[in-house]
Each structure stands twice: as structure tokens, then as C-alpha cells.
Amino acid sequence: MTGRRRTPGHFGLLIFMFVWLMVLVPLSVAAAPYAAMVMDARNGKVLHAQNADTRLHPASLTKMMTLYVVFEAVQNGEITMDTLVTVSRKAASEEPSKLGLRPGQKIKLRYLVRAAAVKSANDAATAMAEAIEGSEAAFARRMNRTAQAMGMTRTTFKNAHGLTESGHLSTARDMTILGRHVIYDYPQYYNLFSRKTADAGVRQVSHTNSRLLNSYKGADGIKTGYTRAAGFNLVASAERGKERVIATVFGGRSTASRNARVEELLDLGFKKSPAWANNRAPKAPPYLGKGAGAVVVAKTSDPVPGTRAKSIRVASAAVTRSLRPQARPGSVVTPGMVAPIVASVGKDIERELQEIAMVSDTAPSPIPDAAPDPVPEAMVVSAVAPTASIKPVQRPVGVAAAAATLTFKDTPTPARKAEVVTRLSTSGGRHWGINVGRYPSEYAAQKILLQTALAETASLDGASRKVVRGKTGFDANFMGMTRDSAELACRRLQARQITCFMVGPG
């Protein structure tokens, strides 16, 4: 019996099927591993975790740390949002997604920040890194120091943009920790991550994850990421009432499936998190940029079971050189001197801030309404540990001795009725005040008022601190001032580049 004769068409079909098998099998084998984490942002409690400590490619989630370091550099006076950054050939040649910068082009830092946060532009990320640290490699080392100080123990950054590079790895846990720090440590910039569009100087850019922002109630960020090696990644945050949840996904198969999974995880988070919980903001890492002190070795424990403890290099927070000109003798206290003053009365301030937080229950809770520019409306001064405490000035011995020898005649005092004394009003004929910024939470506004009061005791003495809640935030005001004293206070604060405007009667 003879077999069936195979026609050329049969052979063509077999070859076609073989080729497709060769293509599909490697793709399934090489699919990016899945990992996820859900956290209650208010207190850092983990609500769900799957492969959360597996080191994977973070892709553009990296830019959360890039932007965090940029915000830190701006706050500490290394650079300003209006600094013109010269784009290098390396930055301009980065692979997409990109803004389309040209070598030698000059562009303000604020536009690079928007491009990185909204469009996830790789050329913008590299340009910022080079502007702050001189080279992307040096910037990546600073990213790693900051990550270790945050407790991101299984993360290693090799670049500022997140394109695949050997050893450039992170975990779902570490990226969730980073997302929480972005929310709490720099609330004045957080609205960037929820902008659907933004002016990036050279053109208007659109958000990489506008679908989730539009479809999920309360979603206001944070960052997407995609490479072939990483798959579709996302760190998302959403707020409903007083609840805030962060969900992280690594290794999604597509934008749609990743978003669907993140929505499920956010729903899970809101279901598991209590309606009320104390806000416990994460401890901000020490300043590790230019001007930071000598590097010391500190011990840390890797939270992953079965791994060994290791040593990490952490720069001390002591500042060895001033980033601002020193004040002339007899001049007023400058913003750069606030930190030691805050530390010298730290117990009282810390107690008052704790009371504020307990009453308001509002640790920084970002408001998604877009601010006009990613520039803090008032200078925020970090309370780093001072290198030396400020001691009170001792009175001359002669004065003290003379005071001790003074005697007073016993003069009868007329009898007076008992009086009940309450806190004296500072308003009286004082119907003016000043505003030193609008902030996303009452806690943040109260903190700025305390720091500003310490920095400008001369013109703010007697003024009362008042936080006024508005539609888009909390106004930090000093009230109970005359028009002249309010005008003087504003002039002195504005001279030190602290935003201030007068508030009239009514």
C-alpha cells in the first residue's frame, strides 16, 4: 500500500507552523516575572505581597528616584527650577521615550522635571542627572546612597532613566517604599504625577498612564515603566477620603492587563485598610548630596529571609560647607541657619507638631489639583542634625553681680480685684497678615509656619500662626499684624527668596 503523496502546500504549512512555534516558545519562556505589593500609605502596612522581594528590571519606575534626588537638590540649594541645563550629546541620544532634545540645547530644569514625570522622557532624565552630579554614573551612585538610606535594600541603580542595563534591578517592595517617600517627603511636587498634560518647554506632553488616572476613582499617580526585559510595570497610588493605598506591579503582559491588575490590587487595598488610621510618615533619608558630610559605614539587615546582613555606605547628614553666602555680622537669621535653631528647640517643636498631627490627622496628603509650576511656594528647610548646638549667651559677671545687690523699698500695693487672664488677642487694631504658601496638608502648613517664625523672629514677633483650608490646599498665614509690620515682614522674607504676600483686612 502506498502512502499519501505530500504536496508542496503541505510542506509549506509544516514550515509555517514550525517557525511560529520557534517564535512563540521563546517569548513565553522569556516573559517577565510577575511581582506585586499593596501598602497602606498612611502607616506603611503591607496588605498584599507576591514575589515582592524578587530583583527585577524596574524600567522607568527608576525615574521616581531620579526625580526624588532632583527635588532634594532643589530644596538644598544645589540647583533651581529655573536653572538652564545644557543638553549633552549623551542625553540627546537616549532611546525613546524622549522629549527630542538636541545636543547643546539649553532648557530650564522645570521642563525636564515635567517631561520625566509626565512623559517619562529618557533624554530629560539623563540631562537632569548630568546637571546635578556632572555625570550619569555619579548621579546613579547618589541614587543608590539615597535608596539604601530609605531602606531599599535590594535595589541597584546604574542609570537615571531605567533602560535595561546589567545589574540595574529593584523589587516591588522597594519601589513601593520609594513611592511612599515621594508622596510624603515632597508633597509640594506630587501633583506632577497626576497631570494629564504638561508644558515641557519645547512642546506639550501627555501622561503615560492617563487611562488609569481617568478610569480609577481617586488615582493620582505615580509612575509607569516598560521595557522588553521588564514587561509592563506600574506604581500607582489612589486616595479616597482619608485612605490612601499604593499598589505596585512588575511584569505585566500589556498596558490594559497591567492596569486591570493594579485596579484589582487597589480595590483589595481599600477593602483591607481601615477607614481610620494614624498617619505615620516615613522618616526622610538624610541629605546625601553636595555638602553632605563624610561617608560612614552603617549596618543594616536585609529583610529577605535567608539572606545575610550586609554593610552599606551611608553619608552622614552633617553639612560641612554652606550652600549659601554667610550673613554679615548683625544681620538677621537666614534660612540656611534655621536647621540648627530648629534642633536647639527641637523638643518643643516636635511636641507641637505631634499635637497638630493628632488633632488634624493629616500627615502630608497630596492634592491632585495642578499647581502652576513644580516650585515650592515657600522654602522648606530640612531639620538635619547640627554639627554644634547653639548655647545661650551668658550675661557679663559684672551685670549679674550688680543685679544681685539691688534692693527695693517695701511699698504698700493698693488692693486690686482678682482678674482672670486669658491669652491676649494679637488682633486689636491689627487686621493685616502675610501668607507664606499653600500646602497639601495642615501638618505641612503648620510646620512651615513654625520654621518661618524661627527664621524671622524680628518682624513676626507677636503675630499669630493660622492655617486656612481652601479648595486646593492649606494656606499658611501669620495674622494680627499692622499693615507696616506685614509689609516689612514680606520684604524681609522675599529678600531671602521666600514666597510671601500680604493679606488685607477681611
TrEMBL record:
Organism of provenance: Antarctobacter heliothermus
The entry's keywords: Carboxypeptidase, Cell shape, Cell wall biogenesis/degradation, Hydrolase, Peptidoglycan synthesis, Protease, Signal
Keyword 4Fe-4S: no
GO MF entries: serine-type D-Ala-D-Ala carboxypeptidase activity
Family annotation (SUPFAM superfamilies): beta-lactamase/transpeptidase-like (SSF56601)
Domain of life from the UniProt record: Bacteria
PANTHER family: D-ALANYL-D-ALANINE CARBOXYPEPTIDASE, TRAFFICKING PROTEIN PARTICLE COMPLEX SUBUNIT 12
Pfam families to which the protein is assigned, alphabetical: Peptidase_S11
Active site: 60, 63, 120
Family listed: Belongs to the peptidase S11 family.
Record's protein name: D-alanyl-D-alanine carboxypeptidase
Residues that, per the record, bind substrate: 223
InterPro entries, per the entry: Beta-lactam/transpept-like, Peptidase_S11, Peptidase_S11_N
GO biological process entries: cell wall organization; peptidoglycan biosynthetic process; proteolysis; regulation of cell shape
Keyword S-adenosyl-L-methionine attached: no
Domain Peptidase S11 D-alanyl-D-alanine carboxypeptidase A N-terminal: 34-253
